[in-house]
Amino acid sequence: MTKARGAAMRRIQAGNALSAFGLGFTVPYLYVYVAQVRELGSGAAGAVLAVFAMAALAVLPFTGRTIDRRGPLPVLVGAALLAALGALAMGVAGSVATVVGAALLLGAGTAVMQPALATMIVWSSAPDARTRAFALQFFLQNLGLGLGGLIGGQLVDESRPGSFLLLFSIEAAMFLVLAVIGATVRMPRTPTIADARPGQEAGPRSGGLRALLGHRAMVQLCVLGFVLFFACYGQFESGLAAYGTEAAGIAPSTLGMALAANTAVIVVAQFLVLRFVERARRTRVIAAVGLIWAVAWLIAGYAGLGHGSQAMATAAFITTYGLFGLGEAMLSPTVAPLVADLAPESMVGQYNSAFALVKQLALAVGPAIGGPMGAALHGPYIVTFVLFSLGISVLAVRLGRGLTTAQDHPYAVARSRVVARRAPEGRPVESAA
Fold this sequence. Notes:
By secondary structure, this protein is mainly alpha-helical. It has helices at 3-26, 30-37, 41-70, 72-92, 96-123, 130-155, 161-184, 208-213, 216-231, 239-246, 252-269, 274-279, 282-303, 310-331, 335-342, 348-376, 378-400, 405-408, 410-422.
């Protein structure tokens, strides 16, 4: 990595960590704030959470083309300012209309940040360094969210609305810091995606959505991504939580312990698994995650059988969340770089935004389906998501058949180039590609 790339990457990752830290202050307490502190009721709180998700679905289809035309920097700065305004508005909101409006601004701003940051990481990293770059991004996001939630929990007081205003003010301040960092980043030129810069007209750009939908590997990856997010993230705070409390008799406080275990596994395992992830084929890593999550769902099923002690059920439930965390640590340096490597040079932003849209769809559909099933249909719920997890492995293997070696196994390509450079003159060297 060159000096210019390194400087840009450090700023990008710092902004990423600070914005996650700010989100951690408020996300766990948003429902309580609207329903109880502002006394607007559970219906209003549910509407706020729904609007938060729907805002992302509304803006992401337009985000990618804007990134590719204008560059990720102005998009990131605008999104951060919008999110800061939404956070401040949420802190002073006192009616249903104002909290919904604030959720709209906050949801739209935070949704646009993700593809903008991902595109900046792509621009600031060489292909063989993206695995570590995205692993670091995921690590810092989870660390920031965890620390923010931990500190926010010490500051919040349901009897004092002012304590929530403090939380939302801190969140807004973090977004403003992100905007300042984004405005001062000097993006380096990356030769591998040189025509993905604003103002350069490249052929693939004119295809837009049609070109993306015509890219079979990307469509397959989007389908795979939907199943990934639906079977894991879409169940954390809905179906799996409902199943744990209803079928396994898990105390609500244990859910917090399980989520803490999930974050702890991610933080500890992220760089421990990185060496394995870097050297393996990406689709095989994803297939392995499907198998790990299938085991996690089976353990969750054991927790709900009721044959063991409550302590055993609790341990099994926490283990389930821990195994999900291990899978997440393996996916973070795998999926995002694969999206970047599949993208044509002038459509990096559009590919990142499309995949972010798929994630948001899964996060919207997952709770709607998983919540009722987890609460009432305990056996079918576990069987369904064991099958979904095994489906991840099948879809990953099928995707791998249509990828080039550079896309699926960049480590092998980079290694073959090193060997070729070091080979004695006159001795032929076989290419790994």
